[in-house]
């Protein structure tokens, strides 16, 4: 037991004071919720129905946690909801070739992401709901360069990611059909992929090593808008 505590302490202290403080607050709230299971809802009518979820992060703060897409939330019963988040990103950039070079230099990215999840509401007081839940993560991405350095060198990278984690959030209802909220996500992710390089008639394919990571950064805070119907 002492060994586990020591390893956990080392991992946490490797992050900034702000992130460490956020992690401590997160675990304190989770401990409080599970310690007192008899928290009663005063307005459980808000913990039902269906909602469309949009991330403010995709509007301008940072890349969207929904991968540029949207989320659907369906209450299976009061205080227990299913989440289905879908996303698709497509971007490209072309650099016109200078004089005395062979090709334009073109970059492109295509990413598809799916995040299923389950949400449990623990505290429902007037217009405020506190909740937590579990989520899964699956994504597939292709990044390609053609005409690298304005030559005939082409590179294509494929990556696969999967994982899951926990989330804790709060949602405030500004009206019957509109709410705004924020949640923090602790995500464990595994990934693998391949890189294919071609130069004229020569092609080489290399497999990328599998990697795992635990993301505790402050960028895991997601601000969301929800439209309920």
Helix content: 10-25%
Helices, by number, come to 2
Mean pLDDT: 77
Give the CATH architecture of the largest domain: Beta Barrel
* Structural class by SSE content: mainly beta
Biggest sheet overview:
8 strands, antiparallel, barrel
Strand order in space, largest sheet: 1-2-3-4-5-6-7-9
Unreliable sequence segments: 1-15, 35-42, 58-67
Order of helices and strands: HHEEEEEEEEE
- Per the CATH scheme, the topology name of the largest domain is Porin
Strand content: over 45%
CATH class of the largest domain: Mainly Beta
From the alpha-carbon coordinates, what is the Rg to the nearest angstrom?
22 Å
Backbone shape:
elongated
Architecture overview:
With 229 residues, this protein is mainly beta. The protein has 2 domains: 1-38; 41-228, Porin. The chain has helices spanning 2-13, 17-35, and strands at 50-55, 70-77, 80-95, 105-125, 128-148, 153-173, 178-199, 202-215, 221-228. It has an 8-stranded antiparallel beta barrel. A hairpin with a 4-residue loop joins strand 5 and strand 6 (153-173). Mean pLDDT is 77; it is low at 1-15, 35-42 and 58-67.
């Amino acid at each position: 037991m002492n060994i586990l505590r020591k390893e956990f302490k080392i991992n946490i202290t490797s992050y900034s004071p702000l992130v460490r403080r956020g992690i401590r607050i997160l675990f304190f709230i989770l401990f409080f919720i599970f310690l007192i299971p008899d928290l009663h809802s005063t307005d459980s009518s808000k913990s039902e129905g269906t909602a469309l979820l949009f991330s403010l992060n995709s509007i301008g703060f940072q890349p969207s946690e929904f991968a540029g897409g949207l989320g659907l939330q369906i209450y299976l019963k009061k205080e227990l909801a299913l989440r289905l988040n879908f996303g698709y990103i497509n971007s490209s950039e072309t650099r016109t070739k200078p004089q005395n070079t062979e090709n334009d230099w073109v970059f492109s990215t295509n990413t598809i992401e799916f995040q299923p999840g389950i949400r449990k509401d623990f505290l429902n007081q007037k217009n405020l709901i506190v909740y937590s839940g579990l989520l899964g993560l699956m994504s597939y991405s292709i990044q390609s360069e053609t005409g690298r350095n304005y030559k005939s060198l082409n590179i294509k990278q494929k990556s696969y990611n999967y994982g899951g984690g926990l989330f804790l959030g709060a949602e405030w209802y500004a009206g019957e059909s509109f709410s705004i909220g924020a949640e923090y996500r602790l995500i464990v992710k595994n990934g693998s992929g391949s890189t294919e390089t071609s130069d004229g008639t020569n092609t080489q394919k290399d497999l990328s090593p599998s990697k795992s990571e635990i993301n505790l950064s402050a960028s895991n805070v997601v601000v969301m808008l929800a439209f309920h119907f």
